[in-house]
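Troubleshooting: if your tokenizer reports a length mismatch, compare against these two reference records.
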Amino acid sequence: MNMRQYANMQVERISTISRLIEIEEKWKELLQQSKANEIFLTPEWIISWWKIFGANRELYVITLWVDNDLMGLVPLYKSRRGIFDQLTFLGLPDQSDRVDFIYKEGYGEECMRACMDYLSDNVKWDVLNFKRLVSYTDSVHILDTILKQRMWKYLCGKDGAYPYLELHDYAGYDDYMTKNFKSKHRGNLRREGDKIHNVLKAVWTVRKEVDDKIISEMTDIDVNRSVRGQQGNSFLQRNDNRSFVSELMQRMKIANYIRLFTYEVQERIAAYSLAFNYGGKILNYQMSYDDQYSREGLGVHVILQSIRYAIENNKSEYDLLLGEEDYKKRWSSNIRSSKYYFIFRNTYKSFLLYQYMKLYQYMKHIKQLNDFPDVNQLTRTRIESQMIKETGIVLPTNKGSMES
């Protein structure tokens, strides 16, 4: 092991899966003692992701130790984009809904400072690409402080949104329905449910194991029979995503994390929600349904029955995970958020990238305003204020001036 000392912390960069597997139990213990206890930061998720997506990338998992105690872990990888070297979180850009620095509660600042010091002193990079960094733990506040003290250039802003339902206040499923739906709506849902079971003869199933045959059926729905698939936006359309799900299902089976909720019609899956049972919550990761059953409300009832399962199994939350789609907003007004950070070091090459990305964001905001020329003044002011906050650039005045 190649350890570097930073204050009271020993820092080790892990570059092999075999070493990650060695510390797997300590890693799981650390997650249980951290606010960043996310399914996307578990060994099962990270190791599965690296096995499928690790080609042409370098593993840079930063671990922080005091003697033999694992105090922090930051799962990163290094890749090259054009002439620039970037470090980002394992699982990104597409498979992990949110990420975070993992550290034992009470040791956040010490761990994050040691990590950033190590990256500054020992790793060649031009940008730290920290997207989907959760904003509901202490990490973003600590990171803001570290960056201001270091006087590094950075861009940051709001990234993802995560609707969720709190379930611990409900006496049961009937109580949930009564408190969240008006009588007429409850009646409509009940009639839809009766039609699904009595006319379609759909069978509701909860699976805790998923094999490649099931993944093949899920793929057929998501790629060929869903509205999203017809629009070319299917998650399972990509071979690497299917391989990732297959690998993940094998690793998660032992840990009892898998919950695949399905409606089957004529012994084939017609609608599904691939969810995870983790941290006392149900996490709805990916769902799809056959569009021919949209009038019967099959998609709505997959979620509704999943919520029922969560309530009846004493889960504290039903988390709809990343996305602000209308169907998610209809289920809950509770929303968590994440932020993005692009962090640049004090080198000429990194500074050029910073200026380019700042200009890119500026042009994006200009396009947003130009696309909606009739936007009211309050909305225009909000967009301009957000642009100033994110880029430091002030929109040109009528005289054509620009400040930065």
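Reference record two:
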Amino acid sequence: MPTELEIIEIRVQAALDVYSNMDPPNAALATRLYGAPPDRVYRRLKGIQSKMERKGSNRKLSDY
């Protein structure tokens, strides 16, 4: 069974798919259609990854 975060991420991805096919693009309408959190959809549109896709914190900047 998917967790709540995974369900929300599925809604965000669905809203982004609809947004990419809209003419003209309307992010607010896409978020309302799928019940996705608007702030997350806007962050994905700006290219910011989800917490599940990001690397962990407190890591070395480079490996030697």
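Descriptive notes for reference record two:
- The chain has a mean pLDDT of 87.
- Helices lie at 4-21, 27-34, 38-45.
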